[in-house]
Amino acid sequence: MSKIVWLLLFLLIMPVVLAGQGQMKLLAVKGVDGNYTGSTADLYLETRPGTGRIFLETYPLTKMDTQISTRFAKEIACNYFDLDCDEFDFIYTIKSTSSIVGGPSAGAAIAVLTTAVVSGLDIEEAMSITGTINSGGIVGPVGGLMEKIEAGVGEGLNTILIPQGTKELRKDNETIDLKKYGKEKGVLVLEATDLNELMFYFTGQKLREDDYSIEVNEEYLRIMKELGTLLCNRSEKLRAELGDFKVEDLAEELRLKNKTIKAEKALDSGNYYSAASFCFGVNVQLRAHLYEKDDLSDDELEQEAVRVKRKLEKYQEEIQRKELKTITDLQTYGVVTERINEGFENLEKFWQQNNTYYLAFAEERLFSAMSWAQFFRMSGKEFKLDEAALEMSCLQKIQEARERHQYVSLFIFGDLIDLSKDIEKEEEIYRSGDYKYCLIKASQTKAEANAILSSLGVEEDKIGELLDTKLGAVERSLARTISKGAFPILGYSYYQYASSLRDEPGIALVYSEYALELSNLDMYFEEESEFEGVSVHPGFWIFIFGGVAGVCVVLLLYFLTLKKK
Asked: What is the mean pLDDT of each run of 10 residues along the chain (565 residues)?
């Protein structure tokens, strides 16, 4: 056999990981004499066999926030469509003829291009999108829309996509309809809600069907109902102990009544997590009034505090010995541990400030922790929650939270939202070796940063619309996870709670982000095999298939050569 045939054979049987490339136009703004004007840039992406690393080159150089937003966009695209991005390294290049203002407004475009290249899809070249990309694949608002539309027209684009709810622009006491403005300029301006909708516009294909329904686990409903009923029955018990004791503060008495009414409505509607939350708040206030009624001395209060601390320590040791097998187990461990730690923290506040409210909070938090522990009984699909996997997921969540905090810090200064202290606590938890709790806490901190990023630039009267969009994203995420056989009890519980807080959209938005972050933790862990056997990497079968195909082709060429001779 000739050397050429041997070379062909070698090349054909080599394992191949497909790489790809693509490009699209970016819409941006640039500074001119202290003012901003529209500009464009070229975004390129090349993927190569690798391990999921990200590289970014910009000409001219842009700010650090562009690098951070690129990482966000890639991560969101891969998670949103369940793309296998760990097999590639991503090389992004942004080229512009002039210095453009860096920032998150390229996030949606980067997510679109990432999805297209990894999926092997062509995108419409005469189209562009300006908008951030947020958790749940939601397109977020950006500035300079009019200037960007003008720049797109100058570049010959025929369609420009902008975030949903941003078509009306206030300028010089005048409201401008950007869709009409675009039509006058000869370009179609459309609003888009999420990444799935963007991909439909750019490729003509819907990559994900949004026909979904959340199938609520009956076992979850039963246990959650027990938990809510338990906490609300405790309210009645504490009221009975108070007897005819009167709360002198009328405003506090009104708050108690309002929480009680909300709890009753939540129980009646089947929103058991909300009922449990409302009743816990009532129980803390009632417990504090019991201390007031009993007129306990300082020594008696100290004895009570020591008693609560010992019970917390004993229960903490018990929980740390729990063997975790399911995502439900993992989330139950997180929520129970969080309540135990809050109990310790409030005891410290009691000793520092001599305020019986904190002692009451600690005691009721212990009762709440023990109530949540009922979820350890819940069955579910088992995952490999080994130490190595938990440690890796904990570190990844901390890094994600830190990056988002850095991003938030670019827009908000001071102590208005200081997530760095939470991240420091999570790093302490990591060093202690409690990776399970670290994962849950870091997820919450990341969610808080996401809530800020999602609402940047959103008018107060539009927060409700943002919340509805976010809850829709939560529903899709929950439906996907549940269909895989894992029921995320915290994701679903926070979703219900966020839905019940529509009269407080700011708080509801935070809980919707909690729900998003905690609805898909299964992505960090491998499922337990139903039988013992040898684990084979998917790439192995690619190698085998390529090898067989290569041998067949070479043999065919060889026999054809013999035939000619």
From this structure: 51 53 90 72 94 88 68 88 91 82 78 96 95 84 87 95 85 85 95 93 87 86 95 94 82 86 91 93 93 89 96 96 94 97 97 94 97 95 92 88 76 62 94 95 90 76 84 87 89 92 89 91 79 44 52 57 56
Nearest CA to 282 out of 250, 253, 311, 312 is that of 253
Distance from the Cα of residue 230 to its chain's centroid: 31
Label each residue of 472-504 as H, E or C.
Answer: HHHHHHHHHHHHCCCCCHHHHHHHHHHHCCCCC
- Nearest Cα residue to 116 out of 48, 57, 49, 46: 46
For the CA atoms of the chain, what is the radius of gyration? 28
Report how far residue 329's alpha carbon sits from residue 323's, in angstroms, rounded to the nearest whole number. 8
- DSSP 3-state of 537: coil
Residues with Cβ within 8 Å of residue 431, at least 6 apart in sequence: none
Counting Cβ atoms within 10 Å, is residue 117 exposed (0-12), middle (13-18) or buried (19+)? buried
What number of residues does the chain have? Answer: 565
Say if residues 521 and 443 touch (Cβ distance below 8 Å). Answer: yes
List CB contacts of 486: < 8 A, sequence separation 6 or more.
326, 327, 328, 380, 381, 383, 522
Q: Give the residue from 212, 217, 507, 228 showing the smallest Cα distance to 371.
A: 228
User: Token pair 């309540």 is at which residue?
Assistant: 339
The rounded distance, in Å, linking the Cα atoms of 419 and 426 is 11
Q: Which helix (H) or strand (E) holds 84?
A: none
Among 69, 70, 47, smallest CA distance to 119 is for 47
pLDDT single digits (tens) 273-282 = 999 999 999 9
Rounded Cα distance, 146 and 169, in Å: 8
Copy the structure tokens of residue 16: 């191949």
CATH 3.30.230.10 range(s) for the chain read: 17-203
β-strand partners of 134 = 138
Residue 563 pLDDT: 57
Interatomic CA distance for residues 530 and 510, integer angstroms = 38
CATH number of 17-203: 3.30.230.10
Instruction: List beta partners, residue 49.
Output: 88
Q: H or E element: which one contains 517?
A: helix 505-517
**Alpha-carbon dihedral of residues 320, 323, 326, 328, nearest 10 degrees?**
-30
pLDDT tens-place string over residues 388-442 = 999 988 998 898 888 778 777 766 655 445 788 899 999 999 999 999 999 999 9
Greatest alpha-carbon span in the chain: 110
Distance of CA 100 to the CA centre of its chain: 29
